[in-house]
Amino acid sequence: MERAYRYAVLAFVFALPFGTKKFIFALIPQMYEYVREFSSLLLYATDILALILIALAFMYAGRRALRTALVKWYSVLGLLACASLFFALNFAYSLYVAMGFILALLVSLAVMTAMQGGAVNVRDIFKVLAASATLQAVIAIAQFYYQKSVGLWILGESVITATTPGVARVDIGGVNFLRAYGTLPHANILAGFLVMGLIACAYLYLTAPRRHPIMHAGSAVAFFTILSALVFTFSRSGWIVAALAIFAIGVYAVWNKELRASAKEFIAVTLVSLAALSLVLGSAVVSRAGFAKGEFSVDHRIYYNEMGLTLIAQHPLGVGIGNEVLQAAREGLFAAKGLTQVWLWQPVHNIYILIASELGIAGLAVFFLMAFVVFRRINFTSPDAVFAGLLVTSLLLFGFVDHFPWDLHAGRLMFWVAFGIMGAVTLKPSSSNG
Length: 434
What we know:
Blueprint: H1 2-15, E1 21-26, H2 29-32, E2 40-44, H3 45-61, H4 71-83, H5 91-116, H6 122-146, E3 169-172, E4 175-178, H7 187-207, H8 213-233, H9 236-255, H10 260-288, H11 296-314, H12 324-330, H13 333-336, H14 351-375, H15 383-398, H16 404-407, H17 409-426
Antiparallel strand pairs: 1-2, 3-4
């Protein structure tokens, strides 16, 4: 049973970026043609893996699974999500989103239970995370090279080219290039997963025994491959978060006596990787660098955030999980900004405003308090705790400019798995704060 549980956790972590799914039916028909992720009932392959993982958690741990650290906080968040259904314009879609949210919370608890019970450890998870991110990096590089999908639709890859309407593109020298997606629904989400992979590779490199050069070499090659693919996402938020994470890792490695022996080598690997990429891709990066008022993506993020703040002011108890876009449309907030086309109806690109608008101010307060409980317990002398904390921190930073860690299937699972890893290494099962 322990072996099955261990493999289930590792398989789920590896499958996080795979978007294999089956369309069931449209819950919001008027939006289906343009934004299917926000309007349809979809059955994902990872949902099936999640149910297997949760079942194994209860079979392996029994009642102990319900005494896992953070279970009380997760219960409150789950109850708030259910309570928000009463405020939802579209009850069916809100119920579907609430079920997906609760499933992610249960997966997080299952990962915590596995780690605290000894079925799996941080190194195991980071090895699988690094391997999965490396695979995504190879796919992403191939997509950018061929400027189209590479035929991995069975893994959830979108069937796209550089001319597909609505696809993420970047202008380089007056030519539109397809941004790499991997098997995820958007380049920015791929960037989020690749940053998690970079953190995992850095952990494996810095904590590998000195007598294991293969681990150092493998981690370094994976790190460079993932960093290269991150460039091809052309995700500016991804570049910024990756830079902050790598800088933090370098400082921490120099500070921590256990990691200091490998710190210089890691910094050298990082600098060489950045120098090589700058020589080859520097001009492409420069063309994408910077943010300007009047830029499509910048202005729309501002508009969406303003709409979210308006909803919070008018609906302090929330508008129902998954219903922020519908409520904004009903109240004419999109039209007021000139966003009359349905494909421009997007969620707030800030998870903190989004949480407050959907679950109410109380929901955001619970989220912040739960995060505080975990972060304040980080033991900075423990690389396991620090690198697990970096996984969560990276996604929280993405949350300031994007919505995927909260409301998109893959992003939500990425965040709650990362939170489960951090909870497992910072809180004991018997913690009074759990």
